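Q: Structure for this?
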Amino acid sequence: MNRTRTLWTLLLCAALAGCGSSVELDESQDATIESRETGAGAGAGGIGDSSRAVQQIDAGDQAQDPLNDPQGILAKRSIYFAFDSFVVEDEYRPIIEAHARYLTTNRNRRIVIQGNTDERGSREYNLALGQKRAEAVRRALAVLGVSDQQMEAVSFGEERPRALGNDEASHAENRRADIVYQ
Amino acid sequence: MNRTRVLSRCAAAFILAGATAWAQAQEMRLDVSGVGATQYPIAIGSFAGEGQLPEDIAAVIRNDLAASGLFRIIETNAVISDSATPDFATLRSQGADSVVGGSYSRLADGRYDVRYRLSDTVRQRSLGGESIVAGANDLRYAGHRAADFIFEKLTGQKGIFSTRIAFITRQGGRYRLKIADWDGRNEQTSLTSPEPIISPSWAPDGSRLAYVSFESKKPVVYVHTLSTGQRKAVANFKGSNSAPAWSPDGKTLAVALTRDGLSQIYLIPSDGGGEPRRLVSSSGIDTEPFYSPDGKYIYFTSDRGGSPQIYRVAVDGGQVSRVTFEGNYNVSPRVSPDGRKLAFVTRRDGGFYIMIKDLASGAETRLSDGGQEESPSFAPNGLWVMYATRANGRDMLMAASVDGRVKQRMSSDTGDIREPTWGPFGP
C-alpha cells in the first residue's frame, strides 16, 4: 500500500540479514529440547492455539449500519409540528419507532434531539417552545424503551432556522425537532 | 461649585475575550424623531481653548441633550468660556433660558483639562459646573458627563448619557456581543461566536454580563467579566439553560432550565456552583424571569393558563398572581427602575408591540408601532425604553421615551442588531 514503507521494510530485512548474529544450535551437546504443551486443554493441536487465539469483533461496518442507509427509514431525522402544536403526529410514528428500535438495539448510541420554532415572537419563549417539541420526541422514544442516558433534548428556538423566508412554508419547515446522533 | 475629577477609564477598559484587541471600526447611525412635552431652550457655545480638541465636546453635549427630546438647542456660533460671564441679554433675546460655556487646555502629560459651566440666563447666575481631566480617548465621556450634569440640574432627573448598552449583532455568519456608549458610539466586542448568542443581561454594578451562548450546540448561561474577558458557564445542566436575570444585589441569577422536562424557573448563585433552587412549579412553560427593583418579587412569562401571560411571585415563595389579562400573548416582562411600570411585548392582530403598564392602576399604553418588536429594556432613569425592531429586512434598535413622544433609531448598514440591554448608572 505504501511504497515507501515497503522499501524501508525491504532495506531493514536486508540490513538484518546482513548484520544479524545468529545463534547456532549445538546439536552435539546433550541439550534436551523440551516438548511443551501450552494452553488450557491443549491436545493434539500443539502449542498456542487457545492462548494466542484472537477474537474478531466488528466496530460497526459503515456499509452495513442501517443508520447510514440513505434510503432507509433511519435516514429520516426530522419531525415536523403544526402551528402552536407539540404533539407528535401519527404520520411520524414509524420514524419514532424505527429510531427507538435502533437505539434499544444499540445501547451505546446517543442522540441529541434539537427543537426549533419559527421566528415569530419572543426568543426566550420560542426557546421554551422548541424545547417542548424536542421533549415530545424524547418522551415518545422513552415510552418505547430508549433510556434517559441515551438522549438529551435541547432547543435552538428561533435561532437556527432551516428556512429563511417569511411565508408559511418557511415557518412550517422551522417547526421541527431533529434527531442528531452523537 | 467647581469640582476637579480625574477620569481614568483605562482601568475599566474592555479587554476582549479572544485574540483580537482592536475596537470595531464600524459605527451605528442614530436618527431621532419627535419632541418632549416640555423643552428647555439652551445655548451651548463652542469651548474656548488653544488648538483643536480631538473630540468636539460641545457637540457631544448638544447631541445628547437634543436626542433626549427635552431640550431645544439654540443655535449659536459663539465661543463661550466657562470663566467669563456670558452675554445673558443677547442669549435671552435668542430664546435661550440656559447657556453652557466651556474651555479646555492641554496638560504636560498629554491629557486635557476640560471645564464647563451651566448658567441661567433669566436669573443671570451660574448653576454650577465641573473641571475634568481626561485623556484623548475619554473626551466623549467627559462630554457625556457634562450632559448628565446639565440634564439633572434642569430636569431634576438623572441623565443616562454616560451609560452603556449591550447588544448582539449578526453579520456574515458570526454573532458578536457588543458594548457601546448609550448613543451607539465606541462599540467594542466582548465575544465573537459562529453560533447564536441571546439574552444579554447586565450585572447591577455594570462589571459583568450574563448571556446565553449556543457555542456548544445547546443553550448554556455564561457570566462574563468585561474588564478581563474571563467567563464562567454558570448554568450548563442537561437540556436548555437560558433567560438569566440578576437579583438587585448581584448575588443571584434567576434562570430558565429544562433539566426536569419543560422550561421552569430556578435561582442559582451568580458565580455558579450549588444546586439550583426551583422558584415555582407549573405543568407548562415558565421562563423570562425578571426581578422587581426591591428584590422581593420575580415577574415571569408562563403559559400555565393556556396562553403565554405575565405573572408575579414572591422570591421566597408564595402565591403566584397574574399580571396581564388583555389578549392571548403577553411576554418579556421588564420592571422599571422605580418599580412602578412594566414594559412587555404583546401580540395584537398578528403584530408584536412594546407595551407599558402602570402596575398600580393597571392601565396599558402601546409604545411602539412597527409590529415586529421584542426585547424591551428600561434606561436606568426609567425615562426611556430601548427595544429591538425590524424594518426593511434588517434588525435594528429603537429607544423611545416612556411617554412615546421621542424616538431614536439605531441601525447599522452592515448587519443585524438585536437583543439590546441598557446598562446601569456608573460609579
